[in-house]
Specification:
seven-stranded antiparallel beta sheet
């Protein structure tokens, strides 16, 4: 008798069907949404947005700022800005001077102290006149590092008031 070979029964192979593809696609895009959501959350919470206030309006008035700066340079107006440390704390001092070193008549003087890396520590101060073109304001305790001091006022030039701005970088150790 002859041995007969019977066909071997193979297990049915796994076939990729439509619902498998659907689940793979949903899983892939779901993972992408989750990862993008994490990156979006990290970006929003780590950077507060624009660094300057009203950047659109500053852009519109940029040419006015340039012409005021050119006039300030032409007139020879300058400023001296610094910190004085004493037992009571730090004091911001600003002198607004003409080309010959004489004091200039200025309107209210404001100073904005800004951190280079964040807006969380920014301080706006109104400086009080102490005479001789000198203005000062007491400061709260400041963190170490780089600070940008922006002095803004108006200089009385004849019948007009001309904007004056001075910028200085101060490093606290």
């Amino acid at each position: 008798m002859m041995a007969t070979l019977s066909p071997t029964m193979n297990k049915p192979s796994k076939v990729m069907k439509g619902h498998h593809v659907l689940f793979w696609m949903m899983g892939f895009f779901g993972l992408m949404f989750v990862v993008n959501g994490v990156f979006l959350w990290a970006a929003i919470t780590s950077f507060p947005g624009e660094d300057v206030h009203h950047s659109y309006l500053q852009g519109i008035h940029f040419n006015d700022r340039l012409s005021a700066q050119a006039y300030q340079e032409k007139m020879g107006w300058r400023s001296e800005v610094g910190l004085l440390t004493d037992d009571d704390g730090d004091v911001l001092i600003c002198r607004i001077l003409g080309p010959d070193g004489s004091a200039l008549a200025a309107g209210p003087v404001t100073a904005e102290m800004r951190r280079a890396a964040t807006q969380n520590s920014d301080i706006v101060l109104t400086l009080a006149p102490v005479g001789g073109g000198e203005y000062q304001a007491s400061l709260p305790l400041l963190a170490e590092g780089a600070w940008h001091v922006i002095i803004d006022t108006n200089i009385h030039d004849g019948d007009a008031e001309v904007p004056f701005q001075a910028v200085k970088k101060i490093i606290l150790k």
